[in-house]
Structure formats: structure tokens, C-alpha cells
């Protein structure tokens, strides 16, 4: 072998040895956290963590997946305000009672009920082509004949602002931002119709907020601003958005006809609250949660069936193992998350005077794939304590702590009151491939990964609920 090649191979070998022996530092090590004797107390929960993991991989193996599959297969999509959503809530109540958990509270919530009707889009110029689209939540309808207009393509709000009013008036605005992160890009979906209407547009379309597509539009919520004309708004596929952009850049005149129909009213739904009472400080709460509603496309298996069921499983497993923490474990199934965190806002309003009793709040709403740790909001001391707890999960590679001042969706409404909290940090790189599409089905769920999430979620919530100190604020 040539000397240079031998040297290169040897360097690779040395590097592999280095990678094998160098241990990635934990958050608490990086931040030089010093939580005193509490570190030893937390370390003593190692046996409990092992017991929970062994139970979920043994007698409880596949239970979360099987129950989720039965739920999803029975009810499918569960839109806000629908009869099927309320039937699914009743089902979860019965499923919980069958496990001997009877401390269940239901709180009524007035929720939006937006029902999608027929939707069509056709390119008329420069050639005829059907365009796949999904109306965005609460979108108004078009006239019976639809809206026929020329398309103006913009990649940002800055591009729209720079355009003259007369260049946008009477046109259809298509936003085609390239997906960076969901948080950065979703504003074009949530605010696009309002900003286009302010410029005189007659409709607004958005390139689906996703990094990948197989001609699949992604729906989602949007909100009309005050004192602005409400115009129809929908998402189209990445493929069609890119096609229209190419035609537009070549100077072609692009004309679409859009027909969208829907109904809208207000219905009564319910937040579901399940308590496993603490034995010393029952008034203190550690909340685990997920939302039970979904969009009307797909089956809501990933968004948010998985999060719903790991939060259902936590008190169930603790009861089965006779593990009763000092504080109360409260599981909440939020209603009407998809159309604006409605259930969470209602809960915050109803329980505003009790915020000091929430020791910690958790939510899973970005998939239940292989758990990696938690995204945590709170003080530096709070994060240091949680980081110490996460060290107990190195065996399943779930010890990472991500600093995030607004983790989760529903729980952000609670966290803004100063309550520390966290969302599940998991290996969800493909989550937004299926998010808010017909592709959100049981096929995206993995039973073994769901078991890991279940064990992780249960054990973390138990430790936080049982340690001798409250999570500081």
C-alpha cells in the first residue's frame, strides 16, 4: 500500500479510537451546574428508571402502539368541533377508567368548527393543469364560480411590501418561501392571507410549509387580521409552487381558477384532565400532555396521537407499578389545538390563579420517534436540575437538553406565566414530511420507538414529581 494511503488509513483508525473514548459532555457539565446534594438524590432514581424501562419493554411492550392504533383506526381524523372528536374523548375517558384511574375532570371549551367542503384549483394559463390544494383553517369560501385571477409570486413579506399596490390588486398572491425551520417559515401560512389582502389581493396561496413532498399539500391554521378583507387562502404542493415560480420567472402570465367551499360555526368540546394524586403535595402538579384533536386530513396518528398516548400511558404505568410520587401527575388531553391552542387558552384562563401550583409542565407535539431528551424552558437552575435527571437516560440516548424559551405549542400558553416546562426532543427529522397531510397515518409510527418515548416520558415525569424540591422559577 502506498505510504500516503497507509498514513491516511492510520489517521482514520486513530480518529475512530478517539470518537470511541471521547464522551459527549452533558448540558450540566457544559454549564458547570452545581445543584449540591440534589445530584446524589437524583442519581438514586436510577433503579426506578430501569424498572420503568424494563416494564415498558416487558409486560407493557407494544401497549402504547396497540392502543394508539386502535384509537386511530376507530376514529381517524378528529377535527375541532366535530362529533367524532367528542366521541374520541369519551373513548379515552373509558380507556382510562378501565385502568382504574377515576380522578377525571372534564372542562367545557367553546371551540371553532371549520368544515372543509369541495376544493379545486386549475391553472388556465399558460396551460391547463389541475393544482392540488388544501384550504387553510378558517379560510372563507370563494363565490360559486370561483376566483379567476393572475398570479403574483413572492418569496417573502419584504418582497410583497416592496410591490406597488396596483401590481397586487385583483391578483392571487403565491408565497413560495424555501423551508428553513417550521418556526421561521410558518408565518407565511399563518399571516399570508392578511398581508396579501392589505395589498388588494383576492386570494392567497402558500407553498406548503415542509421540506419534502410527493405532491402532497400541507394544511394548517391561519388567522385573519382585524379591519382587513378576508380572502380565500390555501396551501399548494412544493412541486406546483416550484412550477409556478419557474413560469413566473420566465415572464409567463399565470392564471388560476380557485374554488373553495367551507362552513364555520362554534361548538362545545372538552379538555380532559386525569390526576394520579401525589402522596405528600397533591396540590402541586407535574403535567404531561398532548392534544387529542387533529386536522381533517390524514388520521392524526403522529400529530398528535403519539403525544396523546404517551401522556395517557404515564399515569397508567405508574399506577400499575404502584409508584405514587410526592406531587400529583396530571395528564391533560388538550382540545382544539390545531385551530389556535383553544383548549390551552381556556385552561390557562380557568386555572390562572393556580399557576404557582404547577411545578413543571410537559408536552409531546412534534412526533414520538426515538427520544433524545427534552427542550426545556425555565431558569438556569431549573435547567440544571432537569439536565441532571436526563443523565439517567444515557442508556437509551435520551440525555440531551435543548434550551428553548417556548417549547411545545399548548404549553407555551402556560409557560409564559413563568412556569418551567419542556417538550419532547426526539429524532423527528421527517416529522414535517407528513405534518398536516393525508400522510399522517399509523405508517409513520414505530412501536419500539413509541415504547422508548413512553418509558422516557413516564420516568421523567415521575422523578420531577417525586424529588424533594420544587423546580425553581
Structural account:
With 473 residues, the chain is of the alpha/beta class. The protein is built from 17 helices and 14 strands. The chain has helices at residues 3-21, 27-30, 38-43, 46-57, 63-75, 83-98, 157-162, 165-168, 182-185, 187-198, 238-249, 301-320, 342-350, 380-390, 410-415, 431-434, 447-466, and strands at residues 104-125, 129-130, 133-135, 147-154, 172-175, 203-207, 233-236, 255-276, 281-291, 327-334, 358-363, 371-377, 400-403, 421-426. Strands 1, 2, 3, 4, 5, 6, 7, 8, 9, 10, 11, 12, 13 and 14 form a 14-stranded mixed β-sheet that branches. Strand 1 (104-125) and strand 2 (129-130) form a beta hairpin. The N and C termini lie far apart (62 Å).
Helix/strand structural class: alpha/beta
Task: Give the integer mean of the pLDDT values.
Answer: 94
Inertia-based shape: elongated
Number of helices: 17
The CA-CA distance between the termini, in Å, is 62 Å
Strand content: 15-25%
Give helix % range: 25-40%
Q: List how many beta strands DSSP finds.
A: 14
Low-confidence stretches: 1-22
Q: What kind of sheet is the major sheet?
A: 14 strands, mixed
Radius of gyration: 25 Å
Amino acid at each position: 500500500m502506498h505510504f500516503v494511503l497507509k498514513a491516511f488509513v492510520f489517521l482514520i483508525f486513530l480518529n475512530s479510537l478517539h470518537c470511541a473514548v471521547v464522551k459527549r459532555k452533558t448540558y450540566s457539565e457544559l454549564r458547570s451546574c452545581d445543584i449540591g446534594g440534589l445530584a446524589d438524590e437524583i442519581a438514586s432514581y436510577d433503579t426506578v428508571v430501569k424498572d420503568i424501562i424494563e416494564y415498558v419493554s416487558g409486560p407493557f411492550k407494544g401497549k402504547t402502539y396497540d392502543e394508539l392504533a386502535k384509537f386511530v383506526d376507530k376514529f381517524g381524523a378528529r377535527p375541532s368541533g366535530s362529533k367524532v372528536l367528542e366521541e374520541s374523548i369519551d373513548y379515552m375517558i373509558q380507556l382510562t377508567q378501565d385502568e382504574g384511574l377515576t380522578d377525571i375532570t372534564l372542562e367545557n371549551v367553546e371551540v371553532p368548527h371549520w368544515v372543509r367542503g369541495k376544493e379545486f384549483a386549475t391553472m388556465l394559463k399558460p396551460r391547463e393543469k389541475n393544482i392540488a390544494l388544501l384550504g387553510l383553517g378558517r379560510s372563507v369560501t370563494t363565490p360559486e364560480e370561483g376566483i379567476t385571477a393572475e398570479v403574483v409570486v413572492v418569496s417573502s413579506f419584504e418582497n410583497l411590501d416592496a410591490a406597488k399596490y396596483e401590481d397586487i390588486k385583483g391578483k392571487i398572491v403565491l408565497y413560495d418561501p424555501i423551508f428553513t425551520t417550521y418556526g421561521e417559515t410558518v408565518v407565511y401560512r399563518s399571516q399570508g392571507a392578511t398581508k396579501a389582502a392589505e395589498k388588494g389581493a383576492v386570494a392567497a396561496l402558500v407553498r406548503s410549509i415542509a421540506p419534502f413532498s410527493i405532491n402532497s399539500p400541507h394544511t394548517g391554521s391561519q388567522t385573519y387580521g382585524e379591519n382587513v378583507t378576508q380572502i380565500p387562502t390555501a396551501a399548494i404542493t412544493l412541486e406546483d409552487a416550484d412550477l409556478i415560480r419557474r413560469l413566473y420567472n420566465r415572464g409567463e402570465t399565470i392564471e388560476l381558477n380557485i374554488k373553495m367551499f367551507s362552513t364555520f360555526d362554534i361548538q362545545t368540546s372538552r379538555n380532559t384532565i386525569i390526576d394520579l394524586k401525589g402522596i405528600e403535595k397533591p396540590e402541586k402538579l407535574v403535567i404531561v400532555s398532548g392534544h387529542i384533536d387533529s386536522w381533517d386530513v390524514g388520521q392524526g396518528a403522529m400529530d398528535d396521537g403519539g403525544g396523546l398516548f404517551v401522556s395517557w400511558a404515564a399515569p397508567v404505568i405508574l399506577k400499575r407499578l404502584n409508584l405514587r410520587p410526592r406531587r400529583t401527575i396530571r395528564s391533560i388531553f388538550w382540545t382544539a389545538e390545531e385551530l389556535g391552542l383553544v383548549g390551552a387558552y381556556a385552561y390557562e384562563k380557568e386555572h390562572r390563579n393556580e399557576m404557582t401550583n404547577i411545578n413543571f409542565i410537559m408536552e409531546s407535539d412534534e412526533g414520538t420517534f426515538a427520544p433524545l431528551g427534552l427542550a426545556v424552558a425555565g431558569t438556569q437552575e431549573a435547567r440544571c436540575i432537569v439536565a441532571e435527571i436526563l443523565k439517567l437516560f444515557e442508556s437509551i440516548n435520551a440525555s440531551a437538553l435543548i434550551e428553548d424559551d417556548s417549547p411545545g405549542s399548548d404549553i407555551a400558553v402556560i409557560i409564559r406565566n413563568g412556569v418551567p416546562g419542556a417538550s419532547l426532543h426526539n429524532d423527528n427529522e421527517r416529522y414535517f414530511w407528513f405534518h398536516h397531510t393525508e400522510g399522517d397515518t399509523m405508517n409513520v409510527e414505530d412501536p419500539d420507538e413509541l415504547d422508548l418515548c413512553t418509558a422516557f416520558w413516564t420516568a421523567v415525569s415521575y422523578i420531577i414529581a417525586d424529588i424533594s424540591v420544587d423546580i425553581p422559577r
